Amino acid sequence: LMRPLQGCRSRGVVVGTVTLCLAAGWALQTPGGVSLVVPQPNINATVAQNILLSVEYSCRGVATIEWKHVSSWGTTSIAEWRSGNHVNISTVYKDRVTTFENGSIQLRNVGMRDAGYYFVTVMEEHGTNAYGTIIVNVYEVIYEDLHFVAVLFAFLAAVSAILICFMWLCNKSLHLFQKKTTHKLTASATEEIELETIEC
């Protein structure tokens, strides 16, 4: 009585294993599944800089890539495209965004309003999605401080040049004055000698 049961169990294990292998093979052959890698999830930039929001996706089918920007000013759609097709870029970003085949985008001439969260969604045609987030921090270059330092440096350089010229002129004047004084002394000494000679 036990032997047939063991045979059924061993057949069940074999059938289960074969079914599992077939299912795995079917899953590998069936288009579907998407993966997304975000190599740099945090980007620091300064105003007027160009930044690359880099991602890399892989997909068995045709994918649709969508980028959105979320900040304290609200949510803005940046771009959407299907791999190999026309890119739809929103009017706000029309002249500032370049898209790449791997799903990345470049944002040119960033401003303070470009800080925030950038969400990328890769949607595969069979319904599988992958999501990624990049945080962008934008810092202002404080031109006022740089301007003040530049003006101060120029002022100090000008004052130094004026002082050097003034010292040179003073030195020249002193030298000329000493020459004249020596000449006068020599002339008066000569006159005295001549007077003494006359008196004698």
UniProtKB/TrEMBL annotation:
<dbReference type="Pfam" id="PF07686">
    <property type="entry name" value="V-set"/>
</dbReference>
<dbReference type="GO" id="GO:1904891">
    <property type="term" value="P:positive regulation of excitatory synapse assembly"/>
</dbReference>
<dbReference type="InterPro" id="IPR003599">
    <property type="entry name" value="Ig_sub"/>
</dbReference>
<feature type="transmembrane region" description="Helical">
    <location>
        <begin position="12"/>
        <end position="29"/>
    </location>
</feature>
<keyword id="KW-0325">Glycoprotein</keyword>
<dbReference type="InterPro" id="IPR013106">
    <property type="entry name" value="Ig_V-set"/>
</dbReference>
<keyword id="KW-0812">Transmembrane</keyword>
<dbReference type="GO" id="GO:0005886">
    <property type="term" value="C:plasma membrane"/>
</dbReference>
<keyword id="KW-0472">Membrane</keyword>
<dbReference type="InterPro" id="IPR015631">
    <property type="entry name" value="CD2/SLAM_rcpt"/>
</dbReference>
<dbReference type="GO" id="GO:0030425">
    <property type="term" value="C:dendrite"/>
</dbReference>
<feature type="transmembrane region" description="Helical">
    <location>
        <begin position="146"/>
        <end position="170"/>
    </location>
</feature>
<feature type="domain" description="Immunoglobulin">
    <location>
        <begin position="40"/>
        <end position="139"/>
    </location>
</feature>
<keyword id="KW-0732">Signal</keyword>
<dbReference type="GO" id="GO:0046847">
    <property type="term" value="P:filopodium assembly"/>
</dbReference>
<dbReference type="GO" id="GO:0030424">
    <property type="term" value="C:axon"/>
</dbReference>
<dbReference type="InterPro" id="IPR036179">
    <property type="entry name" value="Ig-like_dom_sf"/>
</dbReference>
<dbReference type="InterPro" id="IPR013783">
    <property type="entry name" value="Ig-like_fold"/>
</dbReference>
<protein>
    <submittedName>
        <fullName>VSTM5 protein</fullName>
    </submittedName>
</protein>
<keyword id="KW-1133">Transmembrane helix</keyword>
